Amino acid sequence: MSKLRVLIGTRKGAFLATSDASRKQWKVEGPHFAGWEVYHLKGSPVDPDRLYASQSSGWFGQVMQRSNDGGKTWEAVGNQFGYEGAVGTHAWYDGSPHPYEFKRVWHLEPSLDDPDTVYAGVEDAAMFKTTDGGQAWSELPTLRTQESAPGWAPGAGGLCLHTILIDPSNHDRMFAAISSAGVFRTDDAGKSWRPRNHGLHSLYIPDPDAEVGHCVHRIAMHPTRPNVLFMQKHWDVNRSDDGGDTWHEVSGNLPSDFGFVIDVHANEPETIYVIPIQSDSLHYVAEGKLRVYRSRTGGNEWEALTKGLPQKDCYVNVLRDAMAVDALDPCGVYFGTSGGQVYASANAGDSWAPIVRDLPPVVSVEVQTLS
Amino acid sequence: MIKVVLPANLRTLAGLGSVVELDVAAPITQRSVLDVLEENHPALRGTIRDMETKKRRPMIRFFACEEDWSDASPDTALPEEVVSGKEPFLIIGAIAGG
Predict the structure, then answer these.
(1) Chain A: nearest CA to B51, how far in angstroms?
(2) Rounded distance, CA A85 to CA A201, Å?
(3) Domain boundaries, chain A
(4) Which residue of chain B is at minimal alpha-carbon distance from A74?
């Protein structure tokens, strides 16, 4: 019988929650790395007991952690992230040049075929790779050194590379998303990258249709259809049917198309989930109601999912790495809030229940389906 | 033996108690103490000072004998009380964040 393990990163440590396939009773343990910000944890799809975690602190910098036993024990591994060659500058909030400075690892994406290989998306925006289980990290520098990079400007959260997707049918093709630069694609395992933002429209930049400069918050794909991508942009939910070459808006009837998370149902590639946030200045859900919106048509037509979620006096946010889906049927959907709640649905979003209610603010949620 | 006191988050990270004792060869300086500390406890590399430049992280302070040594040259000899082990070398996370 399958088991589930939810990996929860918070502002003050990491937590793991486990359940059987019923997904009704959860055992929560932690905090690991107490007192530290844990932006992301993720397990290897090849060896699910091999976990990686990004642990950071404004005082003490970046620490990387690895577990070989599913999170029972951890060891600190390499934490040296040096940019390759000339460091260069990006645009600061006021438009002035600002030197690239490594601040933290936002996102970890383990390789699909080697537990020792992991990609890391960092702030200031760059991608790093380890091939020895996290001991040594080296930059894939052509992403940061491309022509447009000196003009990239940080979003409110920093100039972060926050999403990495690997095409399951062609591991040399990867997508990276940067706030606020946009989506970039490599077709040669990171040797070269091209911006892939045609069709995006952002009113908060001088040229709304610019090739780069879009504040992409999250992209997602279904593993069986890697050419179809879904995006939650700062404002607007978008879709691409050609591997990011072109995008079109599918916000449809959402009450707000601002938000952070987006994810795809494990068994229905046209079923997607977002959590609308009222606005970029408010950063909490609209009308005091925590509502997940589901589209079964790949966008445009959305339904509110509210059963089990607070529908009054709720003013939480859900950050970009804080939603995940499991691989069971019916599909489980999970998300964590800035109020420290982690909610799970064992029926594709029809109803929800909290796994845990009172954690520190949740930054990331991943789920592993274990056999 | 040189006694070093770490902030709580670094004790947890390295699995150490409140006071770390180090056998450091002379001269006893910030640099030599931190070199041995990081050699003995590799998890601390990069958390107190930059791994390449060895520059103190901005929100870390060094105190000894009721004096702030944070901005002293890392090669300045530390006080005799620290060298003799009578007083600890304090590594402090700056008070910030409310």
Answers:
(1) 7
(2) 34
(3) 45-332
(4) B13
